[in-house]
Fold:
Amino acid sequence: MTVGILALQGDFEAHARVLERLGVEWMYVKRPAELAGVDALILPGGESTTFLKFLERENFLDHLRRFADEGHALFGTCAGAILLAKEVTNPPQPSLGLVDVTVERNAYGRQVASAVRYGRSVLKEGAMEMVFIRAPVIRRVGPGVEVLAECDALPVAVEHGACLLSTFHPELTSDTTLHEHFLEMVRSREARQSRASA
Structure:
């Protein structure tokens, strides 16, 4: 299994360090053609409008949608979560529309309002450390979307189909729970596809 990390801007290097700690092969993805070399993709934090400018080149957005349609798993954190959301507000902007949630951009305030918080997750016992940096807020969760973690009574990590979405930055903590869950999602999907083609 090789996990791709969208490396157009943002904190992609931090995700690479987590995958290395977990012993997983990874590669940076900077062009659509490189999606052919990976089994799943992480969309890191950064600035979502800047991401969109890069993704407008070479029809990258369409290639990402096709990658998802082929059954590959995607994990979006912060700006990556905005790109995966079905609806984006404050202000509205285009997205991949793969996860049935509404997210409000920069809802936690400006960079100076960044903070480390602790919330609960169904994936582990005890509190989960969460780093919020100009983070979006999930304002609506659609049917079929599973809430995996909450903080201050708000959903902050959800799963929908082959997509995992986190409004905070798990890659900036020592807690690898969400990355491990994503890798299990990838393995499960690969196993099902292998059985289906047998």
Observations:
- The mean pLDDT is 91.
- The chain has one domain: 2-197.
